[in-house]
Amino acid sequence: MSESVVPLPQSAGYAVVVGLGFVFAAGMMLTTYILRRYNREIMTAEEFATAGRSVKTGLISAAVVSSWTWAATLLTSTTQVYNNGVSGGFFYAAGATCQITLFACLAIKGRERAPAAHTYLEIIKGRYGKVTHFVYIFWGFATNILVTAMLLTGGSAVVSDLTGMHAVAACLLLPLGVVIYTLFGGIKATFLTDYAHTVVMVVIIIIFAFTTWATSDKLGSPAAVWEIVTKLAETQPREGNAGGSYLTMHSRSGGIFFVINIVGNFGTVFLDNGYFNKAFAANPASTYRGYILGSLAWLPIPAFCSLTLGFAALALEHTEHWPLGRPMTAAEVNSGLVLPNAASALLGKGGAVLSLLMVFMAVTSAMSAELIAVSTICTYDIYRTYINPQASGKKLIWVSHMSVIGFAYIMAGFAIGLYYAEVSMGYLYELMGVIIGGAVLSSALTLLSKRQNWHAATFTPPIATALAIMSWLVVTKVQFGAITYDNTFEDNAMLTGNCVALLSPLVLIPAFTLIFKQQNFDWEILKTKIFRVDEEEELAEATKVTIVDDERITPIKSQISVIASQLVEKEIDGYEHEQQVLHRAFFKCCIVCVTLTICLLVLWPMPMFGTKYIFSKRFFTGWVVVFFIWIFYTVFQVIIFPIWEGRESLCNTFRGIYWDLSGQGYKVKEWQQQHPEKLHAVQSQLQAQLSNQKGEPVMSSAVTPARSYSSDVKKE
């Protein structure tokens, strides 16, 4: 887009990218203080990585929705509708919902079989050892690198398109605010900012929806849009679609993308440690509910956003309202610029501002999850495992902070390189399945099957990936005669590479199992090989407890730990019950997840695909209404329900703020002394002691000298 037609000034880009980023950072610092003051939350290494393992269903759902709403979620889905019509948005949404739904099964088994884990890679190390651990560390990093690269390339392209801000500056500045609030709040910051970002994104989508389908003088109703788009089948028919129409689910290119989308997103869910982070942070009873309900709340975001803005682009591109004054080029479409241009055409500068805010929210919320995912791998799978097994909690937090900063700006540099190499977000999105899809099945079976042996787990990912890359390039060479960037981006080449990556392990894993015999793994071993962090020093410092190293008496760790100890006997039955709930819920969860997956991938789209049905005006209106209703379910699930679920904590917090503002601060301490069981810090310590009761080590395998604490708590 030339500078003369940029809808917003550069200052708007810097205001959003830098200013809004710092607003979130300041808000997170304030929130951290409030949680510490009124709920006694202490930022230990465990808290940084797992949020006390007590996050409830509503917040888990909001985090799933926000983390799975990348820049690509909004931009690529809209591009698919622009290219292939109504099938594009649905195929994107359904093809990327099933992975989150199915991941609920892994989340249950992860919590049940390794309740002290911080990453899924710790489980792989505990089961298969060092070599296999290194293999999956590589694929874990590859996943996080690809996802973050898509976030920055897509986000910087939109910022540059809307404001004229240089893409390099956007790549460097987009991570800044995210790094700051992630450093202060850890994964809790991710959950809280995910919630805030989700609220903004959903509200903006609803604004665009009401404008396009109800109030706009340019469009204003499903019938008006249907009439304009129906005429496009005659003036610019879509090759491969039934009747050349954009109003049909029968689309050759859309169907190919459907398969590529399914394959690639299995990798970016099952191999992204960020989703396991959230599973390990969840309250056990909330683990699978949060993922299932969150997946259903996520589906209308790409489906309805792309339906709205993709059809707005098709309807308005050849009118005087189109901001470019000309049709978009293929490069602009592949870069994800359909959405911002459609928003500008609909609402002028207001639409440009809203689309800028929406993409900024998508980039920063998903990037926060990626930063936490990488920091936990660096901290627990590399530093604590191979460099300093006896590291204290304070040292682990320091490593986590350095990992967040280092990864953010390594990726900023990588994204700048992709910008100058002219590699688009769309290309990366379709390539990711080729690169990481080969590790999906063996990774899942590590948690689901005790029979998968070391050889299958270790050798399947590199062999499957090599076969996928080879197939991708061979098809490109045979079909087009040369291996170039454009040729490797063609549908058939990408489809072949993605399918080989995901499906070849179906042959490799049974072959390795037959050749090298089955493993009969005892799951209880994971509970003795994965350790919690020693938090005594951090808790003592945070609660002003004097450390006495020379005494060899039974330690009184801190006021919080003492209270937790008194509650252990009361809560141990509840812990046992939760483990039983997880065990029983797995079968039920599998039935629900598989049923939803079959409905989304087969029963809903395939009859319309096979019959080549072209939407009538009435059917199209009904289609729009269904997603209108569905987006309001999203509003309830990820905006209203988390507030209702956390109403007691919110009430306690706001009451404490009122007491402080009215000069009655002493009442805060009185309330905390009267209701210690409601303090987050107590619950975190309770979980640690319950795990210890179950025989799970709280510290590293090295034995450390006994340390005791004076029971004299210093006055604050």
Automatic annotation (TrEMBL):
Q: Which InterPro entries does the UniProt entry name for this protein?
A: DUR (IPR031155), Na/Glc_symporter_sf (IPR038377), Na/solute_symporter (IPR001734)
The UniProt keywords, alphabetically, are: Membrane, Transmembrane, Transmembrane helix, Transport
State its location(s).
Membrane
Topology within the bilayer:
Multi-pass membrane protein
TM region positions: 12-36, 57-77, 89-110, 131-152, 164-183, 195-214, 254-271, 291-316, 352-375, 396-421, 427-449, 456-475, 495-516, 585-604, 624-644
Protein's UniProt keywords contain Membrane? yes
PROSITE patterns reported for this sequence: NA_SOLUT_SYMP_3
Alphabetical GO CC annotations of the entry are: plasma membrane
Q: Name one GO molecular function term.
A: urea transmembrane transporter activity
This one is known as Urea active transport protein
Organism from which the protein derives: Spathaspora passalidarum (strain NRRL Y-27907 / 11-Y1)
